[in-house]
């Protein structure tokens, strides 16, 4: 008796978790693209052949930074950057996070938003994690952008390594969080455009606080060992 005879359809094969979509044709915007982390991500993605637009409050500042980065990277004000991009990486300072996203709610509607902001405080003992009212920066973004598809990723990458043209590969993993697999697959695929990097699914947005907070520990590692530490997930 076949499965159809018994009344049950055969199960489709399980999806290969490393079978990721082709994202080479997507336009990636980077809000906060004139800051260290934003510049580094824009440089690496542009160098990999991705179309990148960096955003800033001032279009001329963004254009000047884009010219320095090369690799076809463009500059624009934040609103234009958001409008012209398919995927928008949020790499703004934590203290301006809510205000900037609120001001761009309309431009970011329907977009895939990737939040990489780490809410941190600093005192004489070093860096420490802050806990936003919503639970994390990514959850704050999701609350402020109800018409966007919010994910979280790129928290643990070293800005100096990202910006160093002599570094060919960055040997690290990127933790990717989100609610919809199709969206996290896109972000994982974008991460994989940077040589040496893997994007690894790490849960839903409710788990973003732990990922954001871990940056405080990496700062301590880097200060003690004069390093640019990242993360690797084993056995996957």
From TrEMBL:
Keyword Oxidoreductase: yes
Domain of life: Bacteria
InterPro entries linked: NAD(P)-bd_dom_sf, NpdG, P5C_Rdtase_cat_N, STEAP_metalloreductase
One GO CC annotation: plasma membrane
Domain Pyrroline-5-carboxylate reductase catalytic N-terminal: 28-119
Signal peptide: none
A GO term, aspect molecular function: oxidoreductase activity, acting on NAD(P)H
GO biological process: copper ion import; NADPH regeneration
Keyword set, alphabetical order: Oxidoreductase
Disordered, as annotated region: 1-20
NCBIfam families reported for this sequence: npdG (TIGR01915)
Protein name: NADPH-dependent F420 reductase
Species assigned in the record: Streptomyces liangshanensis
